[in-house]
């Protein structure tokens, strides 16, 4: 008999926030459920459970991914949650606060994780033309019913612009 044991699902091996982890869950268990219930990473919110709102956004292989509809057993690339990118987005959190982009806060973890992915692609986004329109389009999968997106978009654009001016010329 295999190491899974009678009636036990096979192990799911993931790399989460830089650490290898192994969990046991049925094959249909979502990444969001594994993160929250088995790994106690509570910043990932579960709201719509249909991949429509973005509250559950995490990075899988560096790409924003809706964890509520992603089967954990199918994840092969490293997963980053807000807990992992929190230090990276300190300036983005400050911009959110300064611009009133924090309202009820439910969408905020997904917005910040998605913002981290966007700031990592800052050069590409700046070169694409209208930065604000591009950021707005990129964030469109993260629903915010409170702010109207303007403050969130402005915060991400401000951080992208500020980081660009801080980088040494040879580092770009």
Write a short abstract of this structure.
The chain has 172 residues and is of the alpha+beta class. It has helices at residues 31-38, 82-85, 90-99, 108-120, 122-127, 131-138, 150-166; strands spanning 11-16, 19-24, 57-60, 63-66, 79-80. The chain has a 3-stranded antiparallel β-sheet with strand order 4-3-5.
Low-confidence stretches: none
Number of strands: 5
Strand order of the largest sheet: 4-3-5
For the sheet with most strands, the description reads: 3 strands, antiparallel
In whole angstroms, the N-to-C terminal distance is 54 Å
Number of DSSP helical runs: 7
Q: Which structural class should the secondary elements be placed in?
A: alpha+beta
* Rough outline: elongated
- As a whole number of angstroms, the C-alpha radius of gyration is 17 Å
Write structural notes for this entry:
A 3-stranded antiparallel β-sheet has the order 4-3-5. The protein has a two-stranded antiparallel sheet with strand order 1-2. It has 7 helices and 5 strands; from the N terminus they run E-E-H-E-E-E-H-H-H-H-H-H. Helices cover 38% and strands 13% of the residues. It has 172 residues and is of the alpha+beta class. The chain is elongated, with a radius of gyration of 17 Å.
């Amino acid at each position: 008999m295999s190491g899974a044991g009678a009636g036990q699902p096979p192990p799911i091996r993931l790399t989460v926030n830089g650490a290898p982890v192994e969990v046991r869950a049925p094959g249909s268990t979502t990444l969001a459920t594994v993160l929250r219930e088995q790994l106690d990473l509570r910043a990932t919110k579960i709201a719509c459970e249909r991949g429509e709102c973005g509250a559950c956004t995490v990075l899988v292989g560096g790409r924003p991914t809706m964890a509520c509809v992603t089967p954990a057993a199918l994840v092969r690339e490293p997963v980053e949650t807000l807990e992992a990118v929190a230090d990276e987005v300190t300036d983005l959190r400050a911009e959110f606060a300064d611009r009133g982009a924090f309202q009820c806060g439910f969408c905020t973890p997904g917005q910040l994780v998605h913002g981290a992915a966007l700031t990592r692609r800052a050069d590409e986004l700046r070169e694409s033309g209208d930065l604000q329109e591009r950021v707005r389009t990129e964030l469109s999968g993260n629903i915010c019913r409170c702010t109207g997106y303007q403050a969130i978009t402005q915060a991400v654009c401000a951080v992208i612009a500020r980081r660009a001016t801080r980088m040494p010329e040879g580092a770009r």
